[in-house]
Amino acid sequence: MALGEKWSERLADLLDLPRDVVLDLPRIILTGNRRLVVENHKGVIEYTSELLRLNTAKGELRIRGEGLVLPAIFREEVWVEGRLQQLEFYDWGD
Amino acid sequence: MIWYRILAFLRGYLVLTVYGNSLVKLVNLAMAEGIYLWDLQRPGKDLIRVKVGVSGLRALRPLLQRTKSRARIRRRRGLPFLLQKILRRRFWLAGMFLTIIALFFFSGMILFVQIDGVKDTDGRLFAELKQYGVGIGARRNRIIGRMEEIERRLRINHPELLWVDVELKGVLFRLRVIPRKVPPAASGPADLVARKDGRITRLTVVQGTPQVKEGDIVARGDLLIAGYSMIKDLDGSVFWRELPAKGRVEAVVGYEVTTMEPLDLWVVRPLKNRKTVFWLRWRGRLYPIFSWGKIKSPALHCLQRKCLKTGRNPWDLVELIKDDITEVKWEHRRLSVPEALARARAACQQSLRRQVPDKTKPQRVWEDWRQEGRILYYRRVVEVVEEISGIRRREKESGSGIGSKTTEY
Prior knowledge:
The structure holds 2 protein chains of 2 kinds. Chain A has helices at 3-15, 19-22; strands at residues 27-31, 35-39, 44-47, 51-55, 60-73, 77-90. Chain A is of the alpha+beta class. Chain A has a 6-stranded antiparallel beta sheet, with no helix packed on it. The radius of gyration of chain A is 14 Å and the shape is elongated. By secondary structure, chain B is an alpha+beta fold. Chain B has helices at residues 2-11, 23-33, 54-66, 79-88, 90-107, 124-131, 140-144, 147-157, 337-355; strands at residues 13-19, 37-44, 47-53, 70-77, 112-116, 161-169, 172-179, 190-194, 198-207, 209-210, 217-218, 223-226, 228-232, 237-242, 246-262, 264-282, 285-293, 301-310, 318-334, 362-372, 375-387, 389-393, 406-408. A 5-stranded antiparallel beta sheet of chain B has the order 11-9-15-21-20, covered by helices on one side. Chain B has a 4-stranded antiparallel beta sheet with strand order 2-3-1-4. In chain B, strand 13 and strand 14 (237-242) form a beta hairpin. The chains are: A alpha+beta, B alpha+beta. Chain A binds chain B through residues 43-49, 68-75, 79, and chain B through 1, 4, 23-24, 27-28, 31-32, 34, 36-43, 45, 48. Strand 5 of chain A pairs antiparallel with strand 2 (37-44) of chain B.
């Protein structure tokens, strides 16, 4: 973790600021195994009906499932629906 | 997201199938350009199915060229395309228009009239409802404002009904009644008593023993014909047998009405300034729609409110209301004594009409008045001849000499 990042984390703890804003982390909202909303992503790396790979500031996010559909896709936000099976944080470091 | 969908429907959108090798790149580029894509599906390796707005397709074209992809429009959806489709089918459109008009027209009518609670075998209630304008084909808006009046009239005209309720539910007019349970006719011993105060003019006894004679003055509750009669046996002994008293007792009954009439009146005179306001009432709140006209003094006005259209759902009622506001001026008017007298006379006559039973003719009428300050006090008395007897069941008396006991005559 870089020094600046550490300070930012401490500042976020101290001032009770949302970490996703201060540390540029993606916000992931999971509703059962049916819907996933990822905010603050950095683009799609791969998309098939079984796998969605999303780029984030911290690393790659892999969503595995069946019949994956993207009901909405914006610059900052992606909605994923289908039968979600696995969520992987790939290459996220510490 | 729902707002994007609604907006997309209103503006029109396209269902595309995009073929190519760099489809993820295309999606990322579209995101970066701010093109809204939705319902993205990947049915095959080299194709995606996506929905995009009409304006989005124009922005998507250069990106398709850059990623060497091809797009094919599968469906055109949304309001503009729907309207286009509808406008092409003129007969369908005309049919739909006529259907809506017919629905609107017929939903404003009463199509069913139902009477619950009593069997209207002779059709009296139906006939009476028809008199009030309620029948199949009658306009709902003409009935809505008169519901209470219809209910009241039915209550007055049908004393045999204990409870009456009218309800307008959609195209159904429902009359619900509960018939009054009349006690069985007095079969046991009963007396005839006076229902009103009066002076007896005629007494006809069919059964029982009279307790009054013609010319007697009776008060309410006084015994007129007692429910027993004397039977003389052959051996000279007498029986007092209890029975239901029967007969007719006519008496002169007086009705008195007094009223006071002011000689100074403040009368409202409408002025030319008028204002009309249309409101929409929803959930108990009034929202102004539009208005015209102007009134100078908002304090002095006369308001006439009219409900133009009432919604049918009572929980979430929407009403269209029209207010006609007329500016008025209060004017002082001094009445002469004859004028005030005429007004008082009319008021008293109206009051007497309600009190005096129908089918009776006034025998004597007299009136007097006096003036105290600027107020006229008026009194009117009417005497009519009417039947005053009423049945009162007799309690069984033991050892009173009445009944099976035999006494010496």
